[in-house]
Design goal:
Strand order of the largest sheet: 2-1-3-5-6-4
CATH architecture of the largest domain: 3-Layer(aba) Sandwich
Number of strands: 12
Number of helices: 9
Largest sheet: 6 strands, mixed
Distance between the termini: 31 Å
Radius of gyration: 19 Å
Bound molecules: NADP nicotinamide-adenine-dinucleotide phosphate
Oligomer: single chain
CATH class of the largest domain: Alpha Beta
Shape: globular
Number of domains: 2
Strand content: 15-25%
Order of helices and strands: EHEHEEHEEHEHEHEEEHEHH
Length: about 280
Amino acid sequence: MPCIDANTMLYGIIGHPVRHSFSPLIHNFAFKTLNINAIYLAFDVTDLPSAALGIRALGIKGLSVTIPHKTSIMPLLDEVDDTARQIGAVNTIINRGGWLIGTNTDWIGVVSAIKERGKIQGKDYLILGAGGAARAVAYGLKKEGAKVVICNRTYEKARSLAEELDLEVIKWEDRNDFRAYGLVNTTPVGMWPEVDKSPMEQKALKNYALVMDAVYRPLETCLLKQAKLAGCLCVDGLKMLIYQGVEQFKLWTGKEPPIEGMFKIAIEILQNEQN
Ligand code: NAP
């Protein structure tokens, strides 16, 4: 890796909190492997308008954006592309000579992750949740030709998302009786430390060929354990996370990052956390 000098390019992530983020690890690994003179840092940001000025003033080349800034960053940018506008969230900023462009790579993350194991085109999917992750998952699956049904604890939120993206909706109480090709959990149910919780009953999993969990702490969630038992194809949330990062890296550098190595370091860290 070139040493940090006066030519080192700065990238990073803005969020609050951000100390749990994998992004610095995977992007710095990629910069190092490809011998790119760049560094990626985590910025815990509460004053977003000042941070946006800072991006321009300091010439930060690119940023990832995470909770809670994915929507509030939009009016502070010079341009937001159609994809991010339709999803309603920006997770990536590209700085082109002081002109800040917002886009979204979360949908590519989920589509790439699912395509590795199963099919999307012409299949029906049930999405649990109607928050930020659900928006990107629904957009991606629909764009790739799936029929998408939304199911959320708060029905009104599901209905409003369904209306916006032209999806169908079912009630939260009906989720265990539903049947589809794929199921994607985008609620935090099952996330560490509540690792024994699942948003679905075991018997319902036989109604699906493929199950994906956006939760990646732990890597194998209770829902994925149930799905494995039921013989489903399983897709973990780390895949979505890494593939959205891969897309960001390509947008920023125009180069293909070392995907295998990025997975390896992220898995090592997750396994250490669990020990
Ligand atoms: P969010 O915007 O806060 O949305 C959370 C959604 O989950 C809401 O629809 C909420 O329903 C529902 N929910 C929350 N607690 C619930 C419970 N106990 N039972 C049933 N439903 C519940 O959050 P988000 O950004 O979408 O993130 C959701 C999860 O996805 C997090 O665990 C996050 O770590 C994960 N994620 C993963 C990736 C990845 O790359 N793998 C990317 C983004 C997010 P209500 O509307 O009823 O509140």
